[in-house]
Amino acid sequence: MSTAAGRTRPAWKVWAVVAVSVVVVAGLLHAWRNTNVLTEDRLCGGLVSTTRADVVLPGAGRLDAEGDGLDKDLTDTVCRVEKSSVLLGSGGGELTVRVEAEQGADLLGTDRSPELSDTSFFAGRATGGVDTYTGWALLPEKCWADQPVMVRVSSTEPVSDRPAFAALTTDTARAVAAGTKCGDLPEKPGTLLSPVSGAARPVSEGQVCGLDGFSVRDQVPTGTKVLEAGQKAPADLWSCKLTLDTDSRDSAREDGFMTYTASRDPLLIAAVRKAPGTTKGKGPDGREADAVGKSPAMLLHCAEGAPLYVAYASGLQYLEASKSHADLPSRGTYFEPFVKAAAKTFGCAAPVTG
Fold this sequence. Notes:
single chain; alpha+beta; seven-stranded antiparallel sheet
Protein backbone atom coordinates (compact mmCIF):
# COMPACT_ATOMS: atom_id res chain seq x y z
CA MET A 1 0.00 0.00 0.00
CA SER A 2 1.40 3.44 -0.92
CA THR A 3 1.34 6.74 0.93
CA ALA A 4 1.19 10.19 -0.65
CA ALA A 5 4.99 10.16 -0.64
CA GLY A 6 5.04 6.86 -2.51
CA ARG A 7 6.14 4.89 0.50
CA THR A 8 4.47 1.67 1.70
CA ARG A 9 2.48 1.88 5.00
CA PRO A 10 3.78 -0.67 7.54
CA ALA A 11 1.55 -3.73 7.89
CA TRP A 12 1.11 -3.22 11.64
CA LYS A 13 -0.47 0.18 10.99
CA VAL A 14 -2.93 -1.38 8.55
CA TRP A 15 -3.88 -4.03 11.07
CA ALA A 16 -4.19 -1.39 13.77
CA VAL A 17 -6.72 0.53 11.65
CA VAL A 18 -8.64 -2.71 11.00
CA ALA A 19 -8.62 -3.58 14.73
CA VAL A 20 -9.94 -0.15 15.69
CA SER A 21 -12.69 -0.44 13.07
CA VAL A 22 -13.69 -3.86 14.41
CA VAL A 23 -13.84 -2.52 17.97
CA VAL A 24 -15.98 0.43 16.88
CA VAL A 25 -18.40 -1.79 14.93
CA ALA A 26 -18.55 -4.28 17.82
CA GLY A 27 -19.23 -1.45 20.25
CA LEU A 28 -22.04 -0.08 18.10
CA LEU A 29 -23.48 -3.58 17.68
CA HIS A 30 -23.34 -4.14 21.44
CA ALA A 31 -25.03 -0.78 22.07
CA TRP A 32 -27.76 -1.64 19.58
CA ARG A 33 -28.35 -5.22 20.77
CA ASN A 34 -28.01 -4.80 24.54
CA THR A 35 -28.66 -1.16 25.53
CA ASN A 36 -30.97 1.74 24.68
CA VAL A 37 -28.20 4.20 23.74
CA LEU A 38 -29.41 4.18 20.12
CA THR A 39 -33.13 3.89 20.95
CA GLU A 40 -35.61 6.76 20.59
CA ASP A 41 -36.68 8.56 23.78
CA ARG A 42 -40.30 7.43 23.38
CA LEU A 43 -41.79 4.27 21.91
CA CYS A 44 -45.11 3.24 20.35
CA GLY A 45 -45.70 6.50 18.52
CA GLY A 46 -44.65 8.55 21.54
CA LEU A 47 -46.92 6.89 24.10
CA VAL A 48 -44.29 5.16 26.24
CA SER A 49 -41.16 6.66 27.78
CA THR A 50 -38.09 4.54 27.01
CA THR A 51 -36.44 5.58 30.25
CA ARG A 52 -39.44 4.72 32.41
CA ALA A 53 -40.05 1.38 30.67
CA ASP A 54 -36.37 0.48 31.09
CA VAL A 55 -36.60 1.07 34.86
CA VAL A 56 -39.77 -1.02 35.24
CA LEU A 57 -38.58 -4.06 33.30
CA PRO A 58 -35.81 -5.87 35.23
CA GLY A 59 -32.14 -6.03 34.31
CA ALA A 60 -30.26 -4.59 31.35
CA GLY A 61 -31.19 -4.97 27.72
CA ARG A 62 -32.58 -3.35 24.60
CA LEU A 63 -36.19 -2.21 24.33
CA ASP A 64 -38.16 -2.97 21.17
CA ALA A 65 -41.72 -1.82 20.61
CA GLU A 66 -44.67 -3.03 18.60
CA GLY A 67 -47.39 -0.43 18.09
CA ASP A 68 -47.80 2.77 16.10
CA GLY A 69 -49.44 4.94 18.74
CA LEU A 70 -53.06 5.94 19.13
CA ASP A 71 -55.63 4.03 17.09
CA LYS A 72 -58.45 5.86 15.32
CA ASP A 73 -60.73 4.10 17.78
CA LEU A 74 -59.04 5.05 21.06
CA THR A 75 -59.95 1.83 22.86
CA ASP A 76 -58.30 -0.26 20.12
CA THR A 77 -54.90 1.21 21.04
CA VAL A 78 -52.37 -1.49 21.94
CA CYS A 79 -48.62 -1.22 22.44
CA ARG A 80 -46.07 -3.84 23.45
CA VAL A 81 -42.58 -3.08 24.73
CA GLU A 82 -40.11 -5.95 25.08
CA LYS A 83 -36.72 -5.96 26.78
CA SER A 84 -34.15 -8.43 25.47
CA SER A 85 -30.40 -8.96 25.41
CA VAL A 86 -27.95 -11.49 23.96
CA LEU A 87 -25.90 -11.30 27.15
CA LEU A 88 -26.42 -14.13 29.63
CA GLY A 89 -28.16 -13.12 32.85
CA SER A 90 -29.45 -9.84 31.44
CA GLY A 91 -32.96 -8.46 31.63
CA GLY A 92 -36.14 -9.49 29.89
CA GLY A 93 -39.88 -9.27 29.98
CA GLU A 94 -42.67 -7.45 28.19
CA LEU A 95 -45.06 -4.61 28.91
CA THR A 96 -48.46 -4.41 27.24
CA VAL A 97 -50.23 -1.06 27.15
CA ARG A 98 -53.95 -0.90 26.35
CA VAL A 99 -56.56 1.83 26.37
CA GLU A 100 -59.79 0.37 27.74
CA ALA A 101 -63.33 1.49 28.48
CA GLU A 102 -64.71 0.16 31.74
CA GLN A 103 -67.82 0.62 33.81
CA GLY A 104 -67.07 2.96 36.71
CA ALA A 105 -68.43 0.54 39.30
CA ASP A 106 -65.94 -2.07 38.08
CA LEU A 107 -62.83 0.08 38.53
CA LEU A 108 -62.63 -1.06 42.15
CA GLY A 109 -64.34 -4.36 41.45
CA THR A 110 -63.16 -7.40 43.36
CA ASP A 111 -62.76 -9.61 40.28
CA ARG A 112 -60.15 -7.47 38.57
CA SER A 113 -56.42 -7.02 38.66
CA PRO A 114 -54.68 -5.32 40.37
CA GLU A 115 -55.75 -7.29 43.44
CA LEU A 116 -57.37 -4.59 45.57
CA SER A 117 -55.88 -5.55 48.92
CA ASP A 118 -52.39 -5.60 47.37
CA THR A 119 -52.78 -2.40 45.35
CA SER A 120 -50.85 0.81 45.90
CA PHE A 121 -53.34 3.56 44.98
CA PHE A 122 -52.75 7.14 43.90
CA ALA A 123 -55.29 9.95 43.64
CA GLY A 124 -55.45 13.70 43.08
CA ARG A 125 -54.35 15.02 39.69
CA ALA A 126 -54.08 11.39 38.55
CA THR A 127 -56.24 8.49 39.72
CA GLY A 128 -55.17 4.85 39.56
CA GLY A 129 -53.22 2.05 41.15
CA VAL A 130 -50.44 -0.49 40.69
CA ASP A 131 -49.59 -3.89 42.06
CA THR A 132 -46.82 -6.34 41.18
CA TYR A 133 -47.93 -7.01 37.62
CA THR A 134 -50.54 -4.43 36.60
CA GLY A 135 -51.10 -0.69 36.68
CA TRP A 136 -54.02 1.51 35.63
CA ALA A 137 -54.77 5.21 35.41
CA LEU A 138 -58.03 6.94 34.53
CA LEU A 139 -57.99 9.37 31.62
CA PRO A 140 -59.54 12.82 32.19
CA GLU A 141 -63.32 12.97 31.98
CA LYS A 142 -63.23 14.80 28.63
CA CYS A 143 -61.68 11.64 27.13
CA TRP A 144 -64.72 9.52 27.98
CA ALA A 145 -67.70 8.73 25.78
CA ASP A 146 -70.33 6.35 27.17
CA GLN A 147 -67.95 4.82 29.71
CA PRO A 148 -64.86 5.91 31.63
CA VAL A 149 -61.60 5.26 29.80
CA MET A 150 -58.36 4.12 31.39
CA VAL A 151 -54.81 3.20 30.43
CA ARG A 152 -53.80 -0.25 31.62
CA VAL A 153 -50.19 -1.49 31.70
CA SER A 154 -49.41 -5.18 32.28
CA SER A 155 -45.98 -6.69 32.90
CA THR A 156 -44.96 -10.32 32.32
CA GLU A 157 -42.33 -9.93 35.05
CA PRO A 158 -42.91 -8.87 38.67
CA VAL A 159 -42.29 -5.15 39.21
CA SER A 160 -40.44 -4.36 42.43
CA ASP A 161 -40.36 -0.55 42.03
CA ARG A 162 -43.99 0.51 42.42
CA PRO A 163 -43.35 4.28 42.29
CA ALA A 164 -41.58 3.76 38.95
CA PHE A 165 -44.46 1.59 37.71
CA ALA A 166 -46.99 4.23 38.76
CA ALA A 167 -44.92 6.93 37.03
CA LEU A 168 -44.79 4.88 33.80
CA THR A 169 -48.55 4.25 33.91
CA THR A 170 -49.42 7.90 34.60
CA ASP A 171 -46.98 9.24 32.03
CA THR A 172 -48.42 6.90 29.39
CA ALA A 173 -51.95 8.06 30.28
CA ARG A 174 -50.70 11.66 30.00
CA ALA A 175 -49.37 10.95 26.49
CA VAL A 176 -52.67 9.34 25.46
CA ALA A 177 -54.69 12.31 26.75
CA ALA A 178 -52.32 14.79 25.06
CA GLY A 179 -52.50 12.85 21.79
CA THR A 180 -56.28 13.00 21.76
CA LYS A 181 -56.34 16.58 23.12
CA CYS A 182 -58.83 15.62 25.81
CA GLY A 183 -57.13 16.80 28.98
CA ASP A 184 -53.97 17.11 31.02
CA LEU A 185 -52.32 14.69 33.42
CA PRO A 186 -49.01 14.95 35.32
CA GLU A 187 -45.90 13.00 34.37
CA LYS A 188 -45.90 11.42 37.83
CA PRO A 189 -48.74 10.63 40.23
CA GLY A 190 -48.96 11.79 43.80
CA THR A 191 -47.87 9.78 46.83
CA LEU A 192 -48.74 6.09 46.65
CA LEU A 193 -51.01 4.71 49.34
CA SER A 194 -49.69 1.19 49.82
CA PRO A 195 -51.22 -1.70 51.76
CA VAL A 196 -50.66 -1.53 55.51
CA SER A 197 -48.50 -4.66 55.41
CA GLY A 198 -47.40 -7.37 53.05
CA ALA A 199 -49.58 -9.98 54.73
CA ALA A 200 -53.08 -10.19 56.19
CA ARG A 201 -53.28 -9.24 59.88
CA PRO A 202 -55.79 -9.98 62.68
CA VAL A 203 -58.68 -7.53 62.89
CA SER A 204 -59.21 -5.25 65.88
CA GLU A 205 -62.74 -5.68 67.14
CA GLY A 206 -64.68 -2.42 66.88
CA GLN A 207 -62.03 -1.12 64.48
CA VAL A 208 -62.19 -3.71 61.69
CA CYS A 209 -60.40 -2.49 58.56
CA GLY A 210 -59.55 0.68 60.49
CA LEU A 211 -63.19 1.84 60.41
CA ASP A 212 -64.57 3.46 63.56
CA GLY A 213 -67.14 1.24 65.26
CA PHE A 214 -67.01 -1.54 62.66
CA SER A 215 -67.41 -5.06 64.08
CA VAL A 216 -67.88 -8.49 62.51
CA ARG A 217 -68.05 -10.55 65.73
CA ASP A 218 -71.66 -11.65 65.13
CA GLN A 219 -71.25 -12.02 61.37
CA VAL A 220 -68.72 -14.87 61.21
CA PRO A 221 -68.83 -18.44 62.55
CA THR A 222 -68.32 -18.46 66.34
CA GLY A 223 -64.67 -18.65 67.39
CA THR A 224 -63.32 -17.99 63.90
CA LYS A 225 -60.24 -15.77 63.63
CA VAL A 226 -60.65 -12.99 61.05
CA LEU A 227 -57.79 -11.38 59.09
CA GLU A 228 -57.78 -8.11 57.16
CA ALA A 229 -55.67 -6.81 54.28
CA GLY A 230 -55.70 -3.47 52.49
CA GLN A 231 -54.83 0.21 52.80
CA LYS A 232 -55.10 2.47 55.84
CA ALA A 233 -58.41 4.31 56.21
CA PRO A 234 -59.44 6.93 55.41
CA ALA A 235 -58.01 7.48 51.91
CA ASP A 236 -59.21 8.77 48.54
CA LEU A 237 -59.03 5.20 47.22
CA TRP A 238 -59.38 2.40 49.74
CA SER A 239 -60.16 -1.29 50.04
CA CYS A 240 -60.14 -4.02 52.68
CA LYS A 241 -60.48 -7.77 52.28
CA LEU A 242 -61.58 -9.95 55.19
CA THR A 243 -60.39 -13.54 55.28
CA LEU A 244 -61.37 -16.30 57.68
CA ASP A 245 -58.31 -18.00 59.17
CA THR A 246 -59.63 -21.52 58.59
CA ASP A 247 -58.68 -24.57 56.55
CA SER A 248 -60.63 -23.33 53.52
CA ARG A 249 -59.71 -24.44 50.05
CA ASP A 250 -56.84 -22.35 48.64
CA SER A 251 -59.08 -20.80 45.99
CA ALA A 252 -61.70 -19.84 48.60
CA ARG A 253 -59.10 -18.42 51.01
CA GLU A 254 -57.56 -16.37 48.21
CA ASP A 255 -60.97 -14.96 47.24
CA GLY A 256 -61.70 -14.10 50.86
CA PHE A 257 -64.86 -13.71 52.92
CA MET A 258 -65.87 -10.10 52.24
CA THR A 259 -64.22 -7.24 50.37
CA TYR A 260 -65.13 -3.62 51.04
CA THR A 261 -64.21 -0.55 48.98
CA ALA A 262 -64.64 3.18 49.45
CA SER A 263 -63.59 6.37 47.68
CA ARG A 264 -64.08 10.13 47.71
CA ASP A 265 -61.80 10.74 44.72
CA PRO A 266 -63.70 13.12 42.37
CA LEU A 267 -62.59 11.42 39.14
CA LEU A 268 -63.55 7.96 40.39
CA ILE A 269 -66.88 9.37 41.63
CA ALA A 270 -67.48 10.82 38.14
CA ALA A 271 -66.69 7.39 36.67
CA VAL A 272 -69.14 5.67 39.03
CA ARG A 273 -71.88 8.15 38.07
CA LYS A 274 -71.55 6.86 34.49
CA ALA A 275 -72.77 3.41 35.53
CA PRO A 276 -76.04 2.61 33.71
CA GLY A 277 -79.14 2.19 35.82
CA THR A 278 -77.95 4.39 38.69
CA THR A 279 -81.01 5.61 40.60
CA LYS A 280 -81.88 7.91 43.49
CA GLY A 281 -82.46 6.20 46.80
CA LYS A 282 -81.68 6.18 50.50
CA GLY A 283 -78.63 5.12 52.49
CA PRO A 284 -78.81 2.85 55.56
CA ASP A 285 -79.04 5.92 57.80
CA GLY A 286 -81.85 7.47 55.76
CA ARG A 287 -79.78 10.07 53.93
CA GLU A 288 -80.00 10.59 50.16
CA ALA A 289 -77.88 8.16 48.18
CA ASP A 290 -77.54 6.93 44.61
CA ALA A 291 -77.81 3.18 44.05
CA VAL A 292 -75.10 2.28 41.51
CA GLY A 293 -76.65 0.13 38.80
CA LYS A 294 -77.30 -3.45 39.81
CA SER A 295 -74.15 -3.72 41.91
CA PRO A 296 -74.14 -3.76 45.76
CA ALA A 297 -72.78 -0.22 45.84
CA MET A 298 -73.97 3.33 46.42
CA LEU A 299 -72.92 6.96 46.46
CA LEU A 300 -73.68 8.52 49.83
CA HIS A 301 -74.42 12.25 49.74
CA CYS A 302 -72.14 14.07 52.21
CA ALA A 303 -72.64 17.41 53.92
CA GLU A 304 -69.33 18.65 52.52
CA GLY A 305 -67.16 17.65 49.59
CA ALA A 306 -67.50 14.80 47.13
CA PRO A 307 -69.93 11.94 47.77
CA LEU A 308 -68.64 8.75 49.36
CA TYR A 309 -68.62 5.69 47.14
CA VAL A 310 -69.12 2.48 49.13
CA ALA A 311 -69.35 -1.08 47.85
CA TYR A 312 -68.91 -4.64 49.05
CA ALA A 313 -68.72 -8.14 47.58
CA SER A 314 -68.86 -11.55 49.20
CA GLY A 315 -66.11 -14.05 48.38
CA LEU A 316 -65.92 -17.81 47.99
CA GLN A 317 -65.17 -18.17 51.71
CA TYR A 318 -68.60 -16.73 52.50
CA LEU A 319 -70.25 -19.21 50.14
CA GLU A 320 -68.25 -22.05 51.67
CA ALA A 321 -69.07 -20.98 55.24
CA SER A 322 -72.77 -20.47 54.52
CA LYS A 323 -73.08 -24.12 53.48
CA SER A 324 -71.80 -25.38 56.83
CA HIS A 325 -73.20 -22.64 59.10
CA ALA A 326 -76.94 -22.27 58.61
CA ASP A 327 -77.09 -19.30 60.98
CA LEU A 328 -74.65 -17.19 58.95
CA PRO A 329 -76.27 -13.81 58.10
CA SER A 330 -77.46 -13.08 54.57
CA ARG A 331 -75.11 -11.10 52.30
CA GLY A 332 -77.03 -7.85 52.68
CA THR A 333 -76.46 -7.89 56.45
CA TYR A 334 -72.76 -7.15 55.90
CA PHE A 335 -73.32 -3.87 54.06
CA GLU A 336 -75.20 -1.63 56.51
CA PRO A 337 -72.71 -1.66 59.42
CA PHE A 338 -69.85 -1.14 56.97
CA VAL A 339 -71.56 1.86 55.34
CA LYS A 340 -72.26 3.53 58.69
CA ALA A 341 -68.65 3.00 59.89
CA ALA A 342 -67.19 4.15 56.55
CA ALA A 343 -69.28 7.33 56.56
CA LYS A 344 -67.93 8.20 60.01
CA THR A 345 -64.30 7.34 59.23
CA PHE A 346 -64.24 9.02 55.81
CA GLY A 347 -65.78 12.26 57.09
CA CYS A 348 -69.06 11.93 55.20
CA ALA A 349 -71.58 13.52 57.54
CA ALA A 350 -75.19 13.32 56.43
CA PRO A 351 -76.51 16.53 54.83
CA VAL A 352 -78.87 18.57 56.96
CA THR A 353 -82.39 18.18 55.65
CA GLY A 354 -85.04 20.83 55.74
